[in-house]
Automatic annotation (TrEMBL):
Any GO BP annotation: malate metabolic process
CDD domains tied to this protein: MDH_chloroplast-like
SUPFAM superfamilies per UniProt: LDH C-terminal domain-like, NAD(P)-binding Rossmann-fold domains
The organism of origin for this protein: Streptomyces finlayi
Species classification: Bacteria, Bacillati, Actinomycetota, Actinomycetes, Kitasatosporales
Protein name, per record: Malate dehydrogenase
Catalytic reaction(s) noted: (S)-malate + NAD(+) = oxaloacetate + NADH + H(+)
Family: Belongs to the LDH/MDH superfamily. MDH type 2 family.
Gene encoding the protein: mdh
Binding site for substrate: 92, 98, 131, 162
Gene3D superfamilies cross-referenced by the UniProt entry: Lactate dehydrogenase/glycoside hydrolase, family 4, C-terminal, NAD(P)-binding Rossmann-like Domain
Length: 328
């Protein structure tokens, strides 16, 4: 029997947490033969609801779920963590300036980064879901100097999955026939979903679509503004799809990408494709044996270049802002 993997989820009492925990406990995060211990990290106001969720987890009698710990102390929550899903964040409220938003989140992600640094297992893998996800990941990473920087990642898998779904709808293809789609840049309205290297049943997707106006005026804004459209329709932000994407992100990171395909992850840039080193930006990546590599050598046309640069510029500004606030 395998040693259980310790999985920490912050914001466990929130709506993404509720959609996420049951799938982790049933084996979808790491695999059908990997037992897990869950650590639920909440703020004091969230502890009671987290206890309720833990009662329901107990009631599922999941064969893979060994134990659940609930805490509001990051040092306890990240003790021995192998995987950390940082979901809890401070949302933007009406009239809040970007600086206020970044400093409120700095107050969450800086101490959590330090707690990860001091308490997590050596093989810790971190996924930041809470927005602004890329810059929150940068703040946590900067506070964890003893953890290799590449273990801090931000979620753009929901954007990736949304883009695949939109492309499938446009072309009538099956979702499973679409490969090599890329989200570049920030998980924000400036993100760039790129189909120029994507394949649909082995054929180039951009050539099949052959409609740059659709790309610029429909596809890209639909993917980038999908979160707002969900709020408009559902009266609440994406939760099950966000949880599903978090599961996909970690599952792919741990278990590898399929041959002939890649995925999108927000990761510390090594300078590839002209993205300034150190910022956490989304790239096309392949994964193998728990590590990822940026797909190299892709031709970037002018259409893509302008959009990648714009999103990266936003990330540079966010980095400079948190630097100015002393958060990194
Ligand atoms: P909820 O407001 O339902 O839940 C957030 C939970 O986090 C609450 O229970 C709160 O008590 C807890 N929390 C707050 N500060 C905490 C701290 N310091 N430590 C531990 N827990 C803390 O939000 P939910 O809908 O679950 O969304 C969570 C985050 O995901 C938000 O920041 C949201 O913007 C972000 N999203 C990111 C997406 C992505 O693709 N990267 C998509 C979905 C989602 O919008």
């Amino acid at each position: 029997t395998r040693t259980p993997v310790n999985v920490t989820v912050t914001g466990a009492a929130g709506q993404i947490g509720y959609a996420l925990l049951f799938r982790i406990a049933s084996g979808h995060l790491l695999g059908p033969d990997v037992p897990v211990n869950l650590r639920l990290l909440e703020i004091p106001q969230g502890l009671k609801a987290a206890e309720g969720t833990a009662m329901e987890l107990d009631d599922c009698a999941f064969p893979l779920l060994r134990n659940i710990e609930i805490t509001d102390d990051p040092d306890v929550g990240f003790a021995g963590a192998n995987v950390a899903l940082l979901v809890g964040a401070r949302p933007r409220t009406k009239g809040m300036e970007r600086g206020d938003l970044l400093s409120a989140n700095g107050g969450i992600f800086k101490p959590q980064g330090k707690a990860i640094n001091d308490n997590a297992a050596d093989d810790i893998k971190v996924l930041v879901v809470g927005n602004p996800a890329n810059t929150n990941a940068l703040i946590a990473q900067a506070a964890a100097p003893d953890v290799p920087a590449e273990r801090f990642t931000a979620m753009t898998r929901l954007d990736h999955n949304r883009a695949i779904s939109q492309l499938a709808a446009k072309t009538g293809a099956a979702v499973s026939d679409i490969k090599k789609l890329t989200i570049w840049g920030n998980h924000s309205a400036t993100q760039y979903p790129d189909i120029f290297h994507a394949e649909i049943a082995g054929k180039n997707a951009a050539e099949l679509v052959n409609d740059e106006a659709w790309l610029a005026d429909t596809f890209i804004p639909t993917v980038a503004k999908r979160g707002a459209a969900i709020i408009e329709a559902r009266g609440a932000s994406s939760a099950a799809s966000a949880a599903n994407a978090a599961i996909d992100h970690v599952h792919t990171w741990v278990n590898g990408t399929a041959a002939g395909d890649w995925t999108s992850m927000g990761i510390p840039s090594d300078g590839s494709y002209g993205v300034p080193e150190g910022i956490i930006s989304s790239f096309p990546v392949t994964t193998e044996n728990g590590t990822y590599k940026i797909v190299q050598g892709l031709d970037i046309n002018d259409f893509s270049r302008a959009r990648i640069d714009a999103s990266v510029q936003e990330l540079v500004e966010e980095r400079d802002a948190v630097r100015g606030l002393g958060l990194i």
